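Dear Dr. L.,

I hope this message finds you well. Following up on our conversation about the binding site, I have prepared a predicted three-dimensional model of the protein together with coenzyme A. For your records, I am including the exact sequence and ligand specification that went into the calculation, followed by the structure tokens. Please feel free to forward this to your student if that is useful.
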Amino acid sequence: MSDDTEDTLVRGQQRGSHGRQQDEGVLVIRAIAMPADTNPSGDIFGGWLMSQMDLAAGNMAGRVSQGRSATVSVEAMQFLRPVKVGDEVTLYATLRKVGRTSMRIHVDAWARARYSENAEKVTDADFIFVALDESGAPRPVFET
Ligand SMILES: CC(C)(COP(=O)(O)OP(=O)(O)OC[C@H]1O[C@@H](n2cnc3c(N)ncnc32)[C@H](O)[C@@H]1OP(=O)(O)O)[C@@H](O)C(=O)NCCC(=O)NCCS
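The resulting structure of the complex is given below.
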């Protein structure tokens, strides 16, 4: 990984496209919440959002470790506001820490209502990914 790429992944400064305060993280996923993703109450199912966050963190883990990796732990997940059908959901990932074989990746999820220019943070969490070799065993994140 080049120094420039690492700098972007660790401290990527990104201004939200809708004027909101989004002061850190790399935009990794943007998706529209669909009716198929709802819970029995009609709001978006938390599991759908968690899977999007896992995908976002996994995307960054792949870029950082340049290979296979897996989620070993999810910490401090909080659901701050409900997500509604039709919301545009944007996921930002920030590389917080690299260990020997693990990566701590913080993910923020923001939602913008379909007919609004305002986005609100709806969820965040830390995902710990472990870089894996071909056999599924931990490998150093940065090969020496
Ligand atoms: C990922 C996996 C190979 C790690 O195996 P392991 O025996 O725990 O490996 P280690 O003890 O060597 O730990 C590897 C790294 O993960 C970290 N780690 C392990 N468990 C952790 C946890 N619960 N929380 C935070 N970090 C953890 C260790 O600190 C270590 O980090 P470091 O090398 O940067 O110091 C194994 O746990 C596994 O296969 N888990 C299933 C992963 C998976 O399928 N994920 C998808 C879920 S559907």
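In brief: The first helix runs from residue 3 to 11.

With kind regards,
A. P.
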